[in-house]
Amino acid sequence: MCYWIIILEKSKTQMESGRGFGGSATRRIPNGKSLEQGDTAQGNNNGMSNGHGYVVLRNRLTALVVDDDRICRTCEKALLESYGVDTQAVENGRDAVDLFASGASFNLVLMAKVLPVMNGLEATRQIRAMGIRSKILAVTAAAYERERRAFLEAGADEFIEKPLTPQILVPILLELDNN
Amino acid sequence: MDRNQVHRQVALMRQSFFDQGFLDEQFIQLEELQDEANPNFVEEVVTLYYRDSTRLILNIEQALEKSPLDFNKLDCHMHQFKGSSSSIGAKKVKSECTQFREYCKAGNGEGCMRTFQQLKKEYAILKKKLETYFQMARQAGPKEIACRPKPKLDICPDLEKNYVGWIPSRFRYTFSF
């Protein structure tokens, strides 16, 4: 068995803080701040906001982006790949369902709502009906409560308003990596 | 004008986009995704956005000419446009999209049309500003702004949890099994 660790350097100063990631030991980071044992991914805003930071995954994760909008596909795929996640992208719900049906598996699925051929809600339902337990994030430009409920009922794990940000994605990647 | 001055101008221009509300932090996320392998990522995505959204704008214009207005269809077009606008951090454009969708929900055709005119204005203003910005940035030449080194693969099987911290460069090395 071997582990792949993907170490990524984030070197840009953030416009807002809020990029706190968890740490397992006390280390000094270049701007002089230090992470303490037990800092949590969500809670700590001091950790990585002003200096160099690393997110280390122990496993190579896989993801599927389902979105008919080329810009969203490009941005989400680039974001995932920047964390070393092997990412595929398809343009409609039917292609996503077919991929799973053909035996492909993914740790994470980013599912848009409005899609040609088969929409995101239906695709989510069908994927769950196949017994697929991948983490499904509904990522949509609409943020209404009824859409959120509909997606969660269809089997999505979380509902996120576009755009997808590292603040939301990284804790999810860390959680998937630890399982 | 020497290079430092051009760099400074570019930086000031960039900052003004955030200060004046044209762009939000999503634009910074795009800059973060630029690296040696994708040195022009932001400009490419923005170019793609303006290319693809031309069709969406046309669809909305045509839909607004119909009578009676099909608010569901209008909302659907705008849903997509809002998604891509938010992906590049186009803050003012995105807020007009939200306003438009509110008018669709309320069945207010007059409001839709007014908002759409404002949206097209913001869209065009941002396009011009970004074109100028990218042109100047290219003239200024490469700078340290938003350029991350490529991901490195390291082996660390003893880690029990995900490690987050700083590794001195002499310990960073790449090999594979």
UniProtKB/TrEMBL annotation, chain A:
Q: InterPro entries, alphabetically?
A: CheY-like_superfamily, Sig_transdc_resp-reg_receiver, ST_Response_Regulator
Ranges for region Disordered: 18-47
Any Pfam family hit: Response_reg
Domain of life the protein comes from? Eukaryota
Domain (Response regulatory): residue spans on this chain: 62-177
Query: Compositional bias of type Polar residues: which residue ranges?
Result: 37-47
User: What's a BP term from Gene Ontology annotated to this protein?
Assistant: phosphorelay signal transduction system
Question: What name does UniProt use for this protein?
Answer: Response regulatory domain-containing protein
TrEMBL record, chain B:
The record's section on SUPFAM superfamilies has:
Histidine-containing phosphotransfer domain, HPT domain
- According to its UniProt record, what is one Pfam family this protein matches? Hpt
Which keywords fit this entry according to its UniProt record? Cytokinin signaling pathway, Phosphoprotein, Two-component regulatory system
Q: What's a BP term from Gene Ontology annotated to this protein?
A: phosphorelay signal transduction system
The source's superkingdom equals Eukaryota
Q: Name one GO cellular component term.
A: cytosol
Q: Which residues carry this modification: Phosphohistidine?
A: H79
What are the recorded GO MF terms, alphabetically? histidine phosphotransfer kinase activity; protein histidine kinase binding
Q: Does the keyword Transferase apply?
A: no
Instruction: Reproduce the free-text note on domains from the UniProt record.
Output: Histidine-containing phosphotransfer domain (HPt) contains an active histidine that mediates the phosphotransfer.
This chain belongs to the protein called Histidine-containing phosphotransfer protein
